[in-house]
Design a protein that fits this description.
Number of helices: 15
Strand content: under 5%
Radius of gyration: 18 Å
Number of strands: 0
Helix content: over 70%
Structural class: mainly alpha
Length: 292
């Protein structure tokens, strides 16, 4: 797979994920643990079918071969999925996704420390430009009364970074790691609901939205993101996925009128510019050969 195709796949994943905030706003009564459970249940069969289509039954056996690193990546998805759900339920979409934007910074450090991946100069510049946009948006968007939701969003960013670095280390086991992460998240949702005494039984409409989100935007986004991770370095993966940060608040504003400030719009321009700046750069020939 060529580098440009990988970038395109990650962009497509970000576009799918940007729709999830709007879907979340259609859920009326389900608690975060219940959403995590049902969304994971919707995702699992789609990922399993993709693995079967791609690698046959042999691919599903990869669940037993992901190794310690794969288990760590799958556990990271619990924090990525669960933290995102709690954050979005506790604060505005804009507030949550702005904090998800910490992921490229965390991923760049983890990629360098764990994988020895050298971060391109263009990528560092792009991260800097994105940081300006995030700072502009956060200045007018953070709700100081939503501290638990903010912490959950940062935990989500960190979990997604761990997952991303794991994909780069275990590219051949990418989809089994995603499937294992879905299974772990399903268990975590059930366990969290039991410990917090919140019901897993939800209204039919909430059930449909949760299952549909898992089987649709989440599952297909994870497939595209995992495929793109084969050729796109870890820091760049999460940077490109910042497209979600710009689009998610705009979608909920356009469709249901959830407030988006001028700071959000201005910051979004910086984020989009950072993504385009990084995506239009080409890796060096030696790097391209190594990724091919």
């Amino acid at each position: 797979m060529r580098y440009g195709i990988g970038v395109g796949l990650v962009i497509a994943a970000a576009l799918l994920w940007s729709m999830q905030g709007l879907i979340f706003r259609q859920i009326d009564m389900a608690e975060p643990w219940a959403i995590l459970f049902w969304r994971s249940l919707g995702m699992i069969p789609v990922i399993a079918l993709f693995i079967l289509w791609q690698d046959g039954r042999h691919g599903l056996r990869g669940l037993w071969w992901v190794g310690f690193a794969g288990v760590i990546g799958a556990l990271g998805l619990i924090f990525a999925f669960g933290g995102a759900i709690y954050a979005i339920q506790s604060t505005t979409i804009a507030n949550a996704v702005f904090l998800f934007s910490a992921s490229p910074f965390i991923t760049a450090l983890l990629g360098w420390a764990v994988l020895g991946e050298k971060v391109r100069g263009r990528t560092w510049v792009s991260i800097g430009v994105a940081a300006i946009g995030i700072a502009v948006m956060v200045q007018g968007g953070l709700d100081r009364g939503a501290l638990p939701g903010n912490i959950a969003a940062l935990c989500s960013a960190a979990g997604f970074s761990v997952f991303t670095v794991t994909l780069r280390r275990s590219a051949t086991a990418a989809m089994p790691i995603v499937l294992l992460g879905g299974i772990f998240s399903l268990i975590a949702g059930a366990g969290g609901a039991w410990l917090s005494l919140t019901p897993l039984v939800v209204p039919v409409a909430d059930l449909g939205w949760s299952l549909g989100m898992g089987a649709g935007t989440l599952a297909f986004g994870m497939v595209l993101y995992s495929l793109g991770s084969r050729v796109v370095p870890a820091a760049e993966l999460t940077l490109i996925s910042l497209l979600e940060v710009m689009l998610a608040p705009l979608l909920v504003w356009l469709v249901i009128g959830e407030t988006v400030s001028q700071a959000t719009l201005l910051g979004g321009v910086f984020v989009l510019g950072a993504v385009l700046l990084n995506a239009t750069g080409r890796p060096s020939r030696s790097k391209a050969a190594a990724l091919a």
